[in-house]
Structure formats: C-alpha cells, structure tokens
C-alpha cells in the first residue's frame, strides 16, 4: 500500500496505472472540501434512517408527510429540461469499464448511465479506472483493444452520458479525509464533476447524474446543496447539473413530490427501480410477518402495489414537468437458443408496451441488443415527440394504503424459487468478489439489486417461517441443504470465491438481524483482496 498526501487527505489505495491522471492534488482538495462541508449532514441523515427504521419496526406506517402538504399542493415546476435530455426514450446502463462503455455509447440508445453503484464491483482499481474512462469518454478519446486485437472506438453520434455515484450509505475507504474514510457519493460525484463539468458544458451538454438509494426529500436536499457548492467552487453556473432520482425505496415513494421540489433547479426526473424497490419493502418491514413475498418471478410490475407506485411516479413527474423513466429489461439475448430469445423478447416488448402506455417517457435496458426492441415500442407511442410529459395522468389517485398493500393473489413460495435465489446470490457474490459487478447469469444481466432481492427473500422466508407447496417449512436446515446442492452445481466457478460467497450468503440469511445492505458486509473482503495484491 502507498500513501500520498494532499494537506490532510490520504490516498491509502494502491497506486494504479491511471492514479496520477485522476487523483491530482487539486481534485483531491476539491473532494475533500465537499466531504468536510457536507459529510456531517450525510451522517445526520443516516442517523435519521436508523430512527425512522426503529419507528417502523415498532409499528408505525409510512404516510404522506403532513408538514410538506404545501409542496404537494403548490403549482411549482422543475427547471426546463436541457435540450440533449428531452428525448430519453431508451436508456442503457452498465459499469464504467471501457469496452462495455463503448458498446453502450454506440448502442443507439438515447442515454447511457455509467454506473459506479450497483453494476460496479468497487475495487480501488475499478473506481480509479472508471473515472479515467469517463474523462476519455467526455473528450471522445475512449478506446479499447481486446486481447484478440479487436478495436473498440466511439461512433460520431453517441448516447448522452449520465453518471451514477454510489449511495449516501457507502464510504470509499481508500481515501481518508482528516483520518476518516470519504463519502463514496461525494468522491464519485466530486471527481467526475471536477475533471469534466466545464468540458461537458463547452461541448454543449452538461454534468448529468442518476442518484441512487435515497429514502427522503432531506437526502435530496443534501444533493442539491452539494450541487450548488460544487458549481460555485468551480465557477460553473448554478443549474448546470441535472439529476434523475431513482425511486427504489418504499419510503421515497411517499416523498416523490418533495424530492422533485428539493432538486427543482437541477431535476431531470424520476426513475422506477423495480428490484431495489421490492428489496426495500422487505428491508423496511422486516419485523412484520403480516406479509411474505412469493417467488420473485411472481412479484411483477402488474401486481397492485407496484402498479400504484409506478402510476404515482408518472403522474408526479408530469405534473411537475419532469421525465418519468421506466424500469430495467435485463435480458441478455442468447447467441444459440432462438426459442429463449423469442420468449424473452416478447416479455420485454410487453413490459415496454405497459410502460409507454402508462405514460413513461423512456425506459431502461441492460444490453445493446434490446435497444431496438424498446425503441420500436416507444417510437410507436411517441412518434416525433421527444417525450409524453403532456400526459398528466389526472386519472391516477394513489393512497398510502395502495402503496402499502403488499398482497399478491395466488403467490407461492416454491423450492424452485428458493433454489433460484440461492444460486443467483452465490453466482453474483462470487462475480462481485472477483471484481465484476455486472454479471451475466442465466441470460440476465444481474447487479447488486438482484443479489439484494434474492438474499432478502431468503431471509424473510427463513425468519418468518414461509411454507413451501409441499408443506415443508423454509428454515435454516432447508436453506443449508439447498445451498450445499447449489454450490455443488456451480463447479466451474472459482472455488475460493464461491466459498467466500457462500460464507457471506450464510451470514446474510441466517443472522437474526437483517443486514441493511450486503455491500456493507462484503466490502471488507473486497478491500482485503486489494491489500493482498
């Protein structure tokens, strides 16, 4: 390990090939300034999360906030959309890895979301390399040559770039400010903003972001304050930043209006993050046995509570002049199995028909081959229009009861569902520990959100005594038996990483207290691997 100093900023991560380009003294001073100014607020908001969780576990039910009724009833609108963000009909997502970035930029999608969060295994090398790749992408110099000699370069016309920093709950332990790990959110945002904001504006675009894992409008207010602070520090005009918020937490669903309001000078809309949203329900209401979700394949976007959430999102966004972006199509087309493709593409098309029909202005895909499918559907609805924000959805009326009605008619917990969750969680964790955060598993592009819903369902079934169709209880013994069998089936994976993945999954599933985020538990192992190298 090496240590370099910039005043009281220490980089304790190993020096990488592109550290000097990314971690300049000026850039480190900038992110340290943001951390010193705003980390106390971040920590106070994380403490509020703990307090709010305690109230929910004691029986309180979330409600629309009485103290912000004036915001919901007001006539305000978000700032006018930047020209290059008007048309967002298809957005593709992926990690900040050069080859995948180039393929995403060149895919024909309107927007590419470059991800430091769920699709990235946050090894120090990945984080630093990702920032360097973004600098090159902004300047149109990003390239990649495969070991076989195939060259990848950006097309003349590419997708508009948005960047997703890590959530407020995470830290970057490889950089210390005054002796403490820096906020991962401020680190990811600050480095990208410092190196690229002025260059982006000079090129006719801007510093655009996706914001993840927020639970309240106060957390959105913190982001807005950070944006203003960063813009002022670099002499960038206020309002240059644009940010889309992922509504992927049940508590945030009650504060969509307020979140848009807090970010109104910088808002680019809201996005429906489906798997994280379901995960958040189990996480927030973990102490209650009044509901147990069935197999995750049955928790579809058409069940009542998901319909309520997505329809409220569209109505909220369009009332305020903001974009509403739909959820992920994660299918990876097979190069060999035509029938698998036919069935999966039909499901993707149906999903996008529902979203476009509901009024969404765009949608997410995880693979370039899905861009034409999603684009065809939204082209049919939008035609030459860039979006459908004029559809106000005044027919939508969603109550707190609707958002909290988690019943799924005919829902079942099956052995196949248990096996799927165990297998996917093991495969993803093994991939993540190996430094790959976007993993192709059973023709799906999986990220942390998939592992979170898999392990949280397993915890819920074990600790609330779910019953399988044949009458067996889902308990620790059943979980361990299936886990052992699935480990045996995954013989092609690296044995050491699979062993570690099983240890992590055991702790996540078996411990009596629910672990808030699996990354908090697994990150020290990732650090240890980096230190060993």
Strand-helix topology:
Layout: E1 4-6, E2 9-11, H1 19-22, H2 25-57, H3 69-73, E3 90-95, H4 98-105, E4 111-115, H5 124-138, E5 143-145, E6 151-153, E7 160-164, E8 171-177, E9 180-183, H6 184-202, E10 208-211, H7 217-234, E11 242-247, H8 250-253, H9 256-262, E12 267-272, H10 274-284, H11 304-319, E13 324-329, H12 338-358, E14 362-365, H13 371-382, H14 400-403, H15 415-433, E15 439-441, E16 444-446, H16 448-463, H17 476-489, H18 495-510, H19 518-532
Parallel strand pairs: 3-4, 3-14, 4-7, 10-11, 11-12, 12-13, 13-14
Antiparallel strand pairs: 1-2, 2-8, 5-6, 8-9, 15-16
Helix pairs in contact: 2-6, 2-7, 5-6, 7-9, 10-16, 12-13, 15-16, 15-17, 15-18, 16-18, 17-18
Tell me about this structure.
The protein is α/β, with parallel strands linked by helices. Helix content is 48%, strand content 13%. The protein is built from 19 helices and 16 strands. The strands form four sheets. It has an eight-stranded parallel beta sheet. Strands 1-2-8-9 form a four-stranded antiparallel beta sheet. It has a two-stranded antiparallel ribbon with strand order 5-6. Helix 10 runs parallel beside helix 16 (448-463) and helix 15 (415-433) packs across helix 16 (448-463). It is globular and about 65 Å long.
Helix percent reads: 40-55%
What shape does the CA trace take?
A: globular
Q: How many helices does DSSP assign?
A: 19
Which percent band covers the strand fraction? 5-15%
Q: In total, how many beta strands?
A: 16
Low-confidence stretches: 1-6
Oligomer: single chain
Mean pLDDT: 95
Rounded to the nearest angstrom, the radius of gyration is: 22 Å
Largest sheet: 8 strands, parallel
How far is it from the N-terminal to the C-terminal residue, by CA?
Answer: 9 Å
Biggest sheet, strands in spatial order? 7-4-3-14-13-12-11-10
Quickly give the structural class: alpha/beta
């Amino acid at each position: 390990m090496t240590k370099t100093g910039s005043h009281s900023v220490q980089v304790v991560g190993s020096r990488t090939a592109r550290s000097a380009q990314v971690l300049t003294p000026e850039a480190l001073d900038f992110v340290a300034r943001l951390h010193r100014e705003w980390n106390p607020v971040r920590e106070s908001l994380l403490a509020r999360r703990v307090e709010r969780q305690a109230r929910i576990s004691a029986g309180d039910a979330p409600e629309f906030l009485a103290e912000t009724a004036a915001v919901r009833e007001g006539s305000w609108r978000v700032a006018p959309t930047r020209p290059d963000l008007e048309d967002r009909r298809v957005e593709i997502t992926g990690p900040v890895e050069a080859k995948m970035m180039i393929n995403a930029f060149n895919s024909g999608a309107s927007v590419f979301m470059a991800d430091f969060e769920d699709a990235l295994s946050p090894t120090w090398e990945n984080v630093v390399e990702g920032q360097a790749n973004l600098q090159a992408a902004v300047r149109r110099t990003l390239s990649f040559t495969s070991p076989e000699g195939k060259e990848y370069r950006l097309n003349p016309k590419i997708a508009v770039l948005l960047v997703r920093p890590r959530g407020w709950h995470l830290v970057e332990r490889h950089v210390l400010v005054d002796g403490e790990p820096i906020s991962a959110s401020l680190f990811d945002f600050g480095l990208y903003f410092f190196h690229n904001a002025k260059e982006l504006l000079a090129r006719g675009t801007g510093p655009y972001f996706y914001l993840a894992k927020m639970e309240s409008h106060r957390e959105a207010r913190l982001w807005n304050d950070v944006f203003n602070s960063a813009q002022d520090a670099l002499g960038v005009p206020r309002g240059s930043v644009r940010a889309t918020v992922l509504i992927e937490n049940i508590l945030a669903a009650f504060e969509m209006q307020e979140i848009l309001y807090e970010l109104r000078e910088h808002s680019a809309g809201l996005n429906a993050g489906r798997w994280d949203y379901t995960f958040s329900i189990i996480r927030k209401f973990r102490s209650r046995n009044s509901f147990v979700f069935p197999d995750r394949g049955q928790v579809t976007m058409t069940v009542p509570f998901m319909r309520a959430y997505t329809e409220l999102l569209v109505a909220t966004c369009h009332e305020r002049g903001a974009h509403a972006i739909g959820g992920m199509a994660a299918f990876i087309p097979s190069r060999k199995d035509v029938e698998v493709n036919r069935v999966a593409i039909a499901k993707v098309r149906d999903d996008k028909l529902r979203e476009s029909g509901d009024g969404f202005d765009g949608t997410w895909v995880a693979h370039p081959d899905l861009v034409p499918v999603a684009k065809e559907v939204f082209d049919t609805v939008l035609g030459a229009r860039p979006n459908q924000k004029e559809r106000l959805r005044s027919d939508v009326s969603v109550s707190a009861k609707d958002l909290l009605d988690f019943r799924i008619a005919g829902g079942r917990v099956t052995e196949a569902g248990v096996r799927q969750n165990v297998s996917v969680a093991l495969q993803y964790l093994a991939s993540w520990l190996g430094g790959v955060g976007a993993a192709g598993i059973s023709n799906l592009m999986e990220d942390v959100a998939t592992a979170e819903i898999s392990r949280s369902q397993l915890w819920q079934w074990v600790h609330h005594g779910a019953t399988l169709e044949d009458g067996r209880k889902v308990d620790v013994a059943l979980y361990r038996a299936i886990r052992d069998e699935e480990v045996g089936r995954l013989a092609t994976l690296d044995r050491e990483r699979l062993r570690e993945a099983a240890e992590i999954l055991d702790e996540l599933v078996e411990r009596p207290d629910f672990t808030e985020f699996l990354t908090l538990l697994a990150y020290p192992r990732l650090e240890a691997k980096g230190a060993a190298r």
